[in-house]
Amino acid sequence: MRIPFEEVKATLKDILMTRHNTPEPHAEEVARVLAQNSLDGVYTHGINRFMALIHSIELGSVLPNETACRVSGLGGYEIWDGRAGFGIVNARICTQRAIELAKTHGIACVSIRNTNHWLRGGTYGILVAEAGMLGILFTNAKANMCAWGTMEPCVGNNPLVLAVPRGNGEHVIADTSFSQYSYGKLQLAKLEGRMMPDPAGYNEEGQLSCDPGEVLRTQRLIPMGKWKGSAIAMLLDLITSVSSFGNSSAAMAALEDADERACCQTFIVINPFALGDREQADAIIDQALDMVLNATPAPGETVRYPGQNMLRIRKENTELGIPVNEKVWNKILSLRSQ
């Protein structure tokens, strides 16, 4: 089934306000971002995650009335505390603050502790690119992935976002976690009854499995790129937790409840046009992308750069409506009557 963007947003906003007394600005922003994620084709971190967000609110992990506050700062480096508010709202605040600092200092780093899941990290990479700046953004997560060589979760899959602006608005955005497949992708595949094309993690017998249900049960995800992905995930965790003086993936895993909460995020923004001009930057980007796009594709493959499909999918879903799983949508609608 397909549902218009505005109907999706209005429905999610209404539930947040009436069921959980969420302030109208927060409800508007969270509902808009969730609907926008699905509109852009990132279904794993859009409407399909709304029920999980509601669960986190009901557990007390997410406090709808709280927002991030600045703790300390020096030059272009600041530390913020998320006060357990919506990860979506806090991440936008920190992104915008990093952009403002980069306008003055050329480069900025804002790290936040005690915040919640930011849903789709690419949302904030787009904000940076639309401001004409370069972005390096990352978050840690509760230990939910096996480090290379281990059989149990001991490191987070710690998503990383890289953003490069283009003058034509067709920005280059990479948004990836360091597990072979994210939990969102596994949950979507399970919902749709699909197997993963490659092993996603270990099953209960300690064997590699392509079955998303088996891997979700054990939570034994494997890192992409073997030891390389494992190492990068560890370092991202250490950088964001130390720069914010917040929880590492290990500290989050030690919290009493099973919900993922109190994570850290880092927003590094570089203002290249403080020292150079856009035409030169666009020429550098165009040359690099042209080389990739003009390369001979492998049989059955389509060559594209990260983020290239987003505008096409957004246009299609705006015209036809957002694809929504009927079972998921009915669960969401049922919240209105509870």
Task: Describe the structure using short key phrases.
338 residues; alpha+beta; 2 domains; 7-stranded mixed sheet; globular
What CATH calls the topology of the largest domain is Ribosomal Protein S8, Chain: A, domain 1
Overall mean pLDDT? 96
Kindly state the number of beta strands: 13
Global morphology: globular
Please identify, by name, the CATH architecture of the largest domain. 2-Layer Sandwich
Rg to the nearest angstrom? 20 Å
Biggest sheet layout: 7 strands, mixed
Q: Roughly what fraction of the amino acids lie in strands?
A: 15-25%
How would you characterize the overall build of this protein?
The protein is of the alpha+beta class. It has two domains: 1-59 and 310-338, Orthogonal Bundle (Hypothetical Oxidoreductase Yiak, Chain: A, domain 1); 65-179 and 223-307, Ribosomal Protein S8, Chain: A, domain 1, CATH 3.30.1370.60. Helices cover 43% and strands 17% of the residues. The protein has helices at 5-20, 24-39, 50-59, 87-105, 122-130, 183-192, 212-218, 227-244, 249-253, 278-293, 310-320, 326-334; strands at 2-3, 69-74, 77-81, 107-115, 134-139, 145-146, 153-155, 160-164, 172-176, 201-202, 208-209, 263-270, 322-323. The strands form four sheets. The chain has a seven-stranded mixed beta sheet, sandwiched between helices. It has a two-stranded antiparallel ribbon with strand order 1-13. Strands 6-7 form a two-stranded antiparallel sheet. α1 (5-20) runs antiparallel to α2, α4 (87-105) packs parallel to α5 (122-130) and α6 packs across α7. The radius of gyration is 20 Å and the shape is globular. The two termini are 24 Å apart.
